């Protein structure tokens, strides 16, 4: 069995992170999904996340196999939702910029990464987690549902190609 764990991302991880992100962009494009096709996320996105200590990498046998950022500040795009949040009174964390290296397909590492991020959030006293994804990103929606998240509605973000996203929430 492979040694699998999560640690904070470091600046020297950015080249590996970007390989994973660029491959994910290519997969999304091949699937006809406009998500992440306008330059986002970029090197700068991850450099900022790493400097703010909110990026995490999934390590499998010593190699970066996935990445995600866990933000604890309120997300401006989550203020307005076509639907409703279950818990809008307590602080929440958001999962952003998540991707798994395609070489690990079928290992359910997306669920593993989310599970670890849920643990990290609860250790910080946060029991409400949210994320959003493109309406056609069935893979991410399935991973979220398998991880206990519930679809809450539609939010609109900054994506110039298609700004509408399905929003999910998990309350512990």
Distance between the termini: 30 Å
| Mean pLDDT reading | 93
Gross morphology: globular
Which class do the helix and strand fractions yield?
alpha+beta
Count of individual beta strands: 8
Number of helical elements: 4
CATH architect. name: 3-Layer(aba) Sandwich
Rg calc:
15 Å
Order of strands, widest sheet: 1-2-3-5-6-8-7-4
Supply the number of structural domains: 1
Helix coverage percent = 25-40%
CATH superfamily: Gcn5-related N-acetyltransferase (GNAT)
Low-confidence runs of at least 5 consecutive residues: none
For the record, what CATH class applies? Alpha Beta
SSE sequence, one letter per element: EHHEEEEHEHEE
β-strand percent reads 25-35%
Say what the CATH topology is: Aminopeptidase
User: What characterizes the major β-sheet?
Assistant: 8 strands, mixed
Q: What does it look like?
A:
This protein has 172 residues and is an alpha+beta fold. It has one domain: Aminopeptidase. 29% of the residues lie in helices and 30% in strands. The protein contains four helices and eight strands, in the order βααββββαβαββ. The chain has helices spanning 14-30, 43-51, 109-123, 138-146; strands at residues 4-8, 55-60, 63-71, 82-83, 93-100, 128-134, 150-156, 164-171. Strands 1-2-3-5-6-8-7-4 form an eight-stranded mixed beta sheet. It starts with a strand and ends with a strand. The relative contact order is 0.19. The mean pLDDT is 93.
